[in-house]
Amino acid sequence: PAHDRLLGGLLADGVDERSCHSRYQSAMYRRRAGRQPSPYLVSKLRRHEALQRRCGPGTAAYSHAQEQLRSGKNHAAGTGSPECKYLVSISYRGLGNRILAAASAFLYAVLTDRVLLVDPSNEMGELFCEPFPGTTWVLPPDFPLTSYTNFSIETAESHANMVKNKVISPVDVGAVSSARELPAFAYIHLDHDATGEDKQFYCDEDQSVLRDIRWLVMRTDSYIVPGLFLVMAFQEELGMLFPEPDTVFHHLGRYLFHPSNHVWGLIARYHDAYLAAADQRVGIQVRVFGSAPNSPELLEQITTCAQKEGLLPELLAEGLPAATTPPPAPSRRRSKAVLVTSLKAWYYDKLKGMYWERATVTGEAVGVHQPSHEEYQHFGARSHDTKAWAEIYLLSLTDVLVTSGFSTFGYVAQGLGGLTPWVMFKPDNGSVVPNPPCGRDVSMEPCFHAPPFYDCRIKQGADTGKIVPQVQHCKDVSWGLKLV
Ligand code: GDP
User: Fold this and answer.
1) Same domain, 346 and 289
2) For range 446-457, the mean pLDDT
3) Hey, which end of the chain has fewer CB within 10 Å, N or C?
């Protein structure tokens, strides 16, 4: 098939290919074309790229805004909204969390015409290519708020604390914010421990005051996008950008996250050696938390899920096939490549043994592969994140995907690949195999694990999975929200 290297206009042309091999090569590695972005999204992205270039690091506008931040003042009162406003996104926790946080921050930046700058902590600058042509999205080291990576729920400049202390006050939609001077920046705390006050961020009144603050610093480890769909002021624009709401991360992820050349080498070599020749590629993500022992029940959950759903062939009883049914000639035998990702090697080892020691009922040849087994989750170790990123990406290149519920690692893979996964739910009691062992997810979107439980219009607690039709509860995390 002819490969559309620009993904339906999602990517701007003209970036030097040597600086980022994956940017234009990745389309060749995907068998399915992926969903088409709306023409409105495409034109909005081009305009946003122009904003990033006009206001980003290295420009006079950036130096000026940085000076203002250093001086502790917001833009001069009465001049209205400044041309260049900024959103700094803090990068912390696992790679899946960091990718979802950056994608969320990007969408918020697009909706509010802010320049997105990502905190370079945890290799964010090394794992990915620059997404915006002709400028950088990496926050420069001379950022005036030197302790921003320590901002927490306690920070006095958090939006919630400033509302509580009446430094800022949420304004009714349509009203002009009070003449009182606004602070030079606000910190948006949307970590998993965010309080109800922090989550007033998802209300229109709070957005009206934040709109006029030049610098925002955001901390989240979640995919907050379903929360943005609850803000009425954003709904019309979101509807135009994403006529298919279940594709938001699919588009944002493919737009923003291009593996850097080193990581792309790992991906391309592994793909070519183990996945390219197979008729079908099956991805299985086995997320093992903490020091959980190898679990025969989880192994059984994986195999029954994959076999019941027709993703992997069943096996003949030991000793078969009988001598009377010769196996098909190798040239006509269909092949499947199974890509297992896990911190442990045990599940892969068992699966591989099963498909070697016994024949499949369909006669298919099944090869089982796992790129690495890092044993436990490291923090801040470079080669560890490089492998994690390569494996997330390789999972996204498969044709069908089985994931472990609750895991942002799997969410990123499914979104990039445009795959609605079969999700293995965590059993309540680890010693029994859940029945059914897995279920088809409602969409390929990530789940938002820390949503608000408040309806801003009626100013009281509410089921936020019932406010707008596109935002519903997740199957794997019952209190979570996702786009469908
Ligand atoms: P989550 O914790 O499952 O939501 O996913 P995250 O990606 O945010 O954090 C888990 C981290 O553990 C990853 O970033 C990796 O560093 C590591 N990890 C977990 N599973 C795997 C795996 O299958 N392969 C590799 N290479 N690393 C993994």
Assistant:
1) yes
2) 97
3) N
